[in-house]
Amino acid sequence: MKIYSTRKLFVEGILPKPSATQDIGALAERLKALRLWFAAEQLAELVTRSVKECWNSAQFLDELVRLEIERQEERRVTQAIRISHLPVGPTISNFDFAYQPSVSRSRIESLATCQWIRDNQCILLQGPPGVGKTHLTIALATRAIQNGFSVAFYRVDEWMHQLRADAMLELSQLKHRKYMSSNLVVLDEFGYQLMNREEANLFFRVINYRYGKGSIAITTNKGITAWPEVLGGDEVLAGAVLDRILHSATVLNIQGRSYRLKDLETTLGSPQTANHSSAEALTGPV
Prior knowledge:
By secondary structure, this protein is of the alpha/beta class. The protein has two domains: 3-84, no CATH class; 105-261, P-loop containing nucleotide triphosphate hydrolases (Rossmann fold), CATH 3.40.50. It contains 15 helices and five strands. Strands 2-3-4-1-5 form a five-stranded parallel β-sheet. Helix 11 (197-210) links the parallel strand 3 (184-190) and strand 4 (215-220). The longest helix is centred in the first third of the chain and has 28 residues, at 57-84. The model is unreliable at 270-286 (pLDDT under 50).
């Protein structure tokens, strides 16, 4: 119902005005009517706290509104992460920078401000398997969601199935696809599977459309010189793709030990454990 219609009903006496109330239950129902669900749930507890701590009316209202805003933001972030298909868990704070000294923490924190997304720029994270490329990318993408940007996460080999399904669609029909419209598209594990010419062209179509319109973060175990081989053996196409991705891009070349082997290295670090493991390797499990 439009606001002016509601006011008219109040004036004409058709819809009674809410009367003042000190009934916590009734006040909670009014908050729910305004869709302030979290404030309604915490109302009784806040009233109790306000009495104990002698809040004035402004303090009480501020706490009530702040709580609602915080909970709504938490729900927005949770829903956005679910929609983006981002894996949950990797963050900047739980990345082991000491174990991976080739990664500058200050540089990652700078990227976490999301200015590169505001500028529609790209990030390329390259290095051998297991060095933390995907972890950092997910962490930065999560920070992007927390800053209000839309994100779409794809494993490249799985994403190619969708591109092939959309191959016959015109660009005008594709602009609402998440991989076209999201502020940030994360393409994980580029290069693990070689593309044929048709797939490489579909890949270029997305990169070309998003150029200057949205950001892309790519993780890969392939150096730039190997991209033509991945992209259907087409050096010209690979050059066009790289030209668009690397223009004003941030390139992180991560070298170091594999995180996946970190725990194994710790386990094998004990001479007794190492000798036992070596014996098992020779004779099999006891």
